[in-house]
Amino acid sequence: MVHFVGAGPGAPDLITVRGKQYLEEADVIIYAGSLVNPKLLEYTKDVCTIYNSAKMTLEEVISVMEKAEEEGKMTVRLHTGDPCIYGAIREQMDILDEKGIPYDSCPGVSSFCGAASALNLEYTLPDISQSVIITRMEGRTPVPSKESIQSFAAHQATMVVFLSIGMLEELSRRLVEGGYSEDTPAAIVYKATWEDEKKFICTVGTLAQTAAENNITKTALMIIGDAVKTSNYQRSKLYDPGFTTEFRKAVK
Ligand code: SAH
Hints:
alpha/beta; five-stranded mixed β-sheet; 7 helices; 10 strands; globular
């Protein structure tokens, strides 16, 4: 059996209880070494074989899983954050299906949640934004043209941009082209929840400058929208004294 496990955004105690249990039981671990905190590997038992997938191809990853399965071993495939976001898990699962190797998936705390915690942010403020757009600039992996930054910017929803720290001038240009003003609040969070986490509040117009001045060149998320800074939001209805809910009567 193969368990795909979300490692969380960085801090080793932000893996789920279930994910940690799988690490403790695993005979084989294949971890995404470019982003997973190696401290998580301390949870493993002594007799566990560990592979760093940063140095492996898809075929090599699968062959490790296949061999482990033949030997009746349990494999953990440890992905950063939550495996469902830019995790490249589907291509692994499809081959495992072909080979008849069973698997399941254990969620993790995505780095976009880790970044919000770093800034004590609520992405979904009433009257400001009730949606979060998770996206990226195209790099070597293309992004469908219908999902351009400009088209998403038109919504003025909270936007979290992954995998794009090297393209911030272009990101700003597209955000402005799509309708954000240059002074829209933005943030850059580097290594959210790691010991060396760094966070910067800036604006759409100063994203590139902020990253350059602080030498941020990888492992960062950009957050864009008024939710980053505004104090102009509405209170929630759920906790409004004048609002009756399933669990509480309105105070007259
Ligand atoms: N599955 C992961 C994302 C993998 S893609 C998740 O759910 O978080 C890798 C990208 O995620 C990085 O380029 C960076 O943009 C972002 N990232 C991952 N960990 C991060 C962290 N701790 N802080 C900020 N960004 C992070």
